[in-house]
Amino acid sequence: MLRYLCILAVITQLLSSANSEAPAYIKQCRRDDPQLVDCFIAALEHLRPYLASGIPEIELPPVEPFKMDSLALQLTEGPQGYKITLKNMDAYGASSYEVKSLQLGQNGGEPFKARLVIPKLKIEAKYTSSGVLLIIPASGGGDFHAVFDGVTADLTGKTSERNGYLHVDSLSIVLDVKKIDMNISRAFNNNRILLEATNLFLRDNSRLVLDAMQGQLQKKLASEFGKLANQLLKNVPISQFYSN
Ligand SMILES: *[C@@H]1O[C@H](CO)[C@@H](O)[C@H](O)[C@H]1NC(C)=O
């Protein structure tokens, strides 16, 4: 009987130590690390390849490409104003983020802040447009391509702790884009004049288009990022962030 209990104790111990071992996508930090913030930054960067391809065991979808639904952009004013709707957006490059700074928050108190830089974000989408562009009727649809260079994303959010798990309660994102390059293709039955007029407009007004996108893009990204973060956090207890 005693022997049986001993074996049981050993097995229980083995199981529980296996349990507290973190999954491969978690890089653990020491609670007493004097550079704890740097360790968390490294842990966030360690996640990159796992986020890129997704983590099936916790049902985390891949962020390459990062999928977004539609954005509706009003680009010129007036009843015949030029409007573009982007649908089925796929963004490539989001997982090559670098964490430039991190400020830890307090659960239920001070927000956390993080600044991420994404060197290049490529966006592919279907677009439809309506209205008049300059003097030409510009209703149509086709493919939309864009490259955002030098994207800085400032994240601010609040967390709370529930039964040993962290939860992101709110998240906001402010984007800054250094340069944007965009065009359309396969539109207007490939009518060159309409295609070129639209592309000329997009090239000369890339800031306008970006400003029209900004608010909606920030809200969508914040909501998608928040969902991703919580999908991960509900599967990894806080104790697994630490090796001690
Ligand atoms: C269209 O834009 C994409 C993304 O910026 C770029 O890769 C491509 O070369 C552009 N095509 C033309 C014809 O300008």
From TrEMBL:
Gene Ontology terms describing biological process: circadian rhythm
Record Pfam families: JHBP (PF06585)
GO cellular component, one term: extracellular space
Name of this chain's protein: Uncharacterized protein LOC117574902
Gene: LOC117574902
Signal peptide: 1-20
Record keywords: Biological rhythms, Signal
Family as reported in the entry's similarity comment: Belongs to the TO family.
Gene source species: Drosophila albomicans (Fruit fly)
